[in-house]
Amino acid sequence: MAFTKRNVAIRRDVAPNGSGNPASATRLTGIRPSPLTSHLVTSTGTPSLDDLLGGHFGLALGSCLLIEESGTTDFAGALLRFYAAEGLCHGHVLHIVGVSEAWARELPGLAESRSNRHLDSTKSGEEHMKIAWRYQKPNQGGEKGSALPNHTLVTQQTDVQHEPFCHSFDLTKRLAIAADAKVNYVRLKANFNPLETVVQSLQQALSQSQPDMVHRLVIPTILSPGMYPPSASQPEVFLRTMHSLRALLRQHAGRLTAMITLPLELYPRSSGLVRWAELLSDGVLELTPFPHLMDAATAETGNTASGEEQPQGMLKVHKLPITTERGEGGAGAVNSIGEDLSFTLSRRKFTIRPFSLPPLEGDQEGQKEAGKLTGKDVEF
Amino acid sequence: MTSRNRIPHQLEPYLRLPPEASLIVLTSTLGCSATWLTARFVSSLLDYTDDEGGETAVVLASWLRDASWWKQELRRAAGTDVAKSVESKRLTIVDFLCNDNGTVLDTIESTLRTAITTAKQGTRKVTLILENPDTLLALGQTTALTLSQVLLKLRTLVHATAVVLSADLPLLEAASEHAEKVPTPIEAETAAFAVQQAHQAGYVISVRELDTGAARDVSGVLRVTMGGGVYGAAEGTLAGKEMEALYLVQRDGNVKVFERGSATF
Fold first, then answer.
1. Residue B7 within a domain
2. CB A325 to CB B33 under 8 A?
3. Where in this protein does the record put region Disordered (chain A) (predicted)?
């Protein structure tokens, strides 16, 4: 069909000088066409998460990602911070719900400027490390003085034409938020419906901003009793907000994405409430961190020297934007639904790779070989 | 490519124009969406011509997907000529997702009544397809009882009706006698509505994930069972038999349906 053929033609390497490309695709930063469909995608700030999203290599504009996490850890929060920081690097408007300015002040800073990760994905892990070190040194020297050099680095980069699609961040650094950065803090209302303001405020911001400005909505730990009153988990409040948000994402499909994290401890996946929230989202990921004991055991083996961190938990993909809605289920070459994936959060990145059980303790030879096998990043 | 050969031959009997006054229930789960099936149902209905040259029409109302998404998907997946069908009013897409009043039951009923009258144009056989009206239950807008009453009223206006519902375990568990916990209102209402509709349905077509986990060459399991409504209908009016098969929705929108254990390629 003509529709499919046209999609194939729009590829990233053709995009800058391609004539048939929509103007918005070239004018905006941090946006590129998906290699599979005509959708425009933006980076989540985590390269291996971008790779997981059904072969689109990014989060499609107009979609919402729900990240669930069991236990009391906040790995999902790291993904959320990368997503927010990535948005700031591209000059996108950021809407942060329910938390104070302090949350945004703790966003991870840029680690190094590396062009599109996919271009050098063929290089080995060791080379990655070398590049990282080379770029990191001047950067670190600058940070000792003040936060200013880090800030100039950000602004310089946004001026450069070939802005990387996905930046690398360092959790130990802090992203200096430029004075003209567009960050909108959405306060929760202290009444029965604390989420009432979210959709309203978003709607207002979207109508007031330029039509080609990209917005990112960030909702950390939704329904968490630390921030939300019990009434927030009423279907009329929570699911209604999710439904209105879905409508808003569709109405502004070319310029809005959302990422929401949900702690599963109080609201398990087996409840109707959470299942409806999942049905109303476009993508659903579930993080299951390993118990702390396993963490300690792996630290003893000291495997970090080889650049390979042990997995800190399992990651499941339950639903993918675009792909699931079309009914593809778990089928297809680049589909990650139903796969056993593990995640590792290190200082500089959140890595997702296929999970494989480590070899038996004491089996030194086997352990070395396993390192090579699990060392592979998720490849598509 | 015509829409006819986009419909797998195994499914053709189920996607034909259903008998008068019948109800078909399609169910989906979180990972297995039934949109590809709905799109093919719409295209099959629009292709239908009877011996006397009577026309058919479809009113598709959705609470989870917007009109432009459906137009694109109908064209992409099922090869429907959307522009032509919409212009001749044979296809009406009612968008209750982006509509501000899309969750108010009274407005919904009157909007659908108008849409059906317009689509009917005197003699056309209108099929009403409601995608996820159970969203209204999730939003705490209404009860299963009121919703089925409205649905019954609407069914009297059209030739046949199809309802797409979410049938994930948490949404159905309340109807099981082995339920271990006290269901929340939302779980009880969705389960009640799904069971009510299945009892009235001529047949139920459900898609779900593979029990053994995801596979590269299988999108999910498709199962067709007779609903409770078949007992009231005259014998032989329903074309198909019960079946269960695997299906694969490919990236280009093509669908293959095959038996368990048989090779796809």
1. no
2. yes
3. 356-380
Q: What is the chain B residue with the closest CA to A339?
A: B214
Strand partners, A283: A65
Q: Which residue of A has its CA nearest to B67?
A: A250
Q: Which residue is listed with tokens 């080995």?
A: A124
- What CATH number is associated with residue B69? 3.40.50.300
User: Residue B215 domain-assigned?
Assistant: no
Please identify among residues 153-172 of chain B the ones whose CB lies closer than 8 Å to any CB of chain A. Answer: 166, 168-171
Contact of B25 with chain A, judged by CB distance below 8 Å, is answered with no
Domain boundaries, position B121? 22-208
A250/B98 Cβ within 8 A: yes
Nearest CA in chain B to A36: B251
Looking at beta carbons, which residues of chain B come within 8 Å of A275? 30, 166, 168, 170-171
Give A157's pLDDT tier (boundaries 50, 70, 90).
very low
Q: Which residue matches tokens 């009882």?
A: B145
Q: Could you give the count of Cα atoms lying within 13 Å of B206 in the half-sphere of its Cβ?
A: 21
Give the CA angle between residues A102, A106, A112 to the nearest 5°.
Answer: 155
Query: What six digits make up the tokens of A180?
Result: 């003209």
Which site among A250, A322, A324 would you substitute to test the B interface, given the most B Cβ atoms closer than 10 Å to its Cβ? A250
Q: What is the pLDDT of residues A181-218, one digit of tens each?
A: 889 999 888 888 888 889 999 999 999 988 889 999 99
- Digits of tens for pLDDT over chain B (265 positions)? 454 568 999 898 889 888 889 999 999 999 999 999 999 999 999 988 777 778 899 999 999 999 999 999 999 988 889 999 999 999 999 999 998 888 899 999 999 999 999 999 888 999 999 999 999 999 999 999 999 999 999 999 999 999 999 999 999 999 888 777 889 999 999 999 999 999 999 889 999 999 888 888 899 999 999 888 776 555 555 556 889 999 999 988 899 999 988 765 4
Helical packing angle, B105-120 and B144-155, nearest 10°: 20
- Flag whether B263 is in a domain: no
* Gap from A319 CA to chain B (nearest CA, Å): 6
* Cα A191 from Cα A66, distance rounded (Å): 25
pTM: 0.83
**DSSP code, position B212:** T
How many distinct structural domains can be found in chain B? 1
Segments of B29-114 assigned E as strands: 56-62, 91-95
Select from A244, A271, A286, A317 the residue whose CB has the most chain B CBs within 10 Å, as the one to mutate to test that interface.
A271
Q: Is A337 in the B-facing interface, judged by CB distances under 8 Å?
A: yes
Report the gap between the CA of B42 and the closest CA in chain A (Å). Answer: 15
- For each of the domains in chain A, give its residue range(s) and CATH number, in order of start: 64-374 (3.40.50.300)
**Residue A34, CA atoms < 13 Å, CB-side half-sphere:** 22
Residues of B in contact with A325 (CB under 8 A): 33, 35, 65, 69
